[in-house]
Amino acid sequence: MRAALWLTGLFAIAVASALFAGDNSGTVTLFWPPHRVDLSLNLFLLLLAGGFLTLHLAMRALSALMSIPQQARRWRLLQSERAMQTALLESLSHMVSGRFIRARKAAELVISLEDGAQRRGERLGNGARLRTLSHLLAAESAHALQDRNVRDDHFQKALAESANREAQEARDGVQLRGARWALDDRDAAKAMQWLDQLPQGAARRTLALRMRFKAARQAGQLLLALETARLLTKHRAFSPGTGKSLARGLAIELIQSAHDSVQIQRAWESLDAVEQRIPEVAFEAAERLLTHGGNVAISRQWLLPVWESMVQNFDALTLTQRVRLARVLERGFAGTGDELDTAWLSRIEAAQLGNPRDAVLQYLAGVVCMRLRLWGKAQQLLKQSLSLLHESELRRDTWLALAQMAEQRQDAQAAADAYREAAKR
Question: How far is CA 330 from CA 7, 292, 339, in A?
Answer without folding.
Answer: 108, 16, 12
